[in-house]
Amino acid sequence: MKIVLDIETVQHSKEEWAALKGVGLLAADDLLNAGDAAEQDREYEKSCFDPTFCRIVCIGALFFTDTMEPQEATAWYGSNEKELLRQFWERMKIVRPTLFVTHNGLSFDLPFLKNRSIVHQVKPPFDINLAKFRTDPVFDTMSVWSNWEIRGRVKLDVLARVLNTETKSGSGKQVADMWSAGQGKEIAEYCLQDCYVTYACYSRMSYREPMPSERVLAKKDLIELNDQAFG
User: Fold this and answer.
1) 2-10+51-230: which CATH topology?
2) Are 55 and 115 in contact (CB under 8 A)?
3) Is residue 122 within 8 Å of 225, Cβ to Cβ?
């Protein structure tokens, strides 16, 4: 079985970030420390994709047979990150994917999943080889397209337009606002759409015609996992 994977993350609050850093928060209205406060704000903003200071709120996966026949689309989402990881890895233990298809998964999604699993002591059932310059067990569309050159990296929506496939429904920058607004289900839908676009790009890069999203996403399962449900 092959899996197309994507995750959505949100940054810890600035208070949580400061506690993890072991520093005190500096007030911007303190004239004596205004410069330091501005620098602290910049440092906080830079941590927005760091698994040390962020958490996963959605894991999306499309399941295909080895011949790329779609089976189902599943997204685990909610505030209980530990349970998201536990259920995701339990499912991976059952299906034992032969290939993970991602966009920037070698540098972001898969290391992020690994690190957050360590934080919550949720042990994955197997190791995923994240070595570069190969397409097995991870086919990273960003890395393959750029031949692993940083200067050639492209965003998923750009690659989708280049390859004439369906494009993204939004931007990852919107996820934080959606999360703050309580739109967890909408995040899950967005994540699965990103999975579909990644699948479509992978298909083109493998000289296959991608199936329409209506077929690939036909069997959809959105699983909400919030902290209060597991108190």
Assistant:
1) Nucleotidyltransferase; domain 5 (3.30.420)
2) no
3) no
pLDDT digits (tens, 9 = 90+) for 117-155: 999 999 999 999 999 999 999 999 999 999 999 888 999
Backbone angles phi, psi at 131, to 5 degrees: -65, 145
**Which pTM was predicted?**
0.92
* Cα–Cα distance, 118 to 82 (Å, whole number): 10
Q: Is the peptide bond before 137 cis (omega within 30 degrees of 0)?
A: yes
> How far is 138 from 157, CA to CA, in rounded Å?
20
Domain boundaries of the chain, sorted by first residue = 2-10+51-230
Distant-in-sequence, close-in-space partners of 146: CB < 8 Å, separation ≥ 6: 152, 153, 154
**Structure token digits, residue 146:** 């750029």
Has residue 107 got a pLDDT over 50? yes
Assign 13 a pLDDT band (cuts: 50, 70, 90). Answer: confident
Q: Which residues does 215 contact at the CB level (< 8 Å), separation at least 6? A: 70
- Which DSSP state fits 206? T
The structure tokens 């993204």 sit at 168
Would you place residue 163 in the very low, low, confident or very high pLDDT band (cuts 50, 70, 90)?
Answer: very high
Identify the H or E element spanning 188. helix 184-205
DSSP state of 39: H
Task: Name 195's Cβ contacts closer than 8 Å, sequence gap at least 6.
Answer: 4, 5, 6, 60, 61, 62, 73
Q: Which residues contact 100 (CB under 8 A, 6 or more apart)?
A: 2, 3, 4, 5, 110, 128, 137, 138, 139
3-state SS class at 72? strand
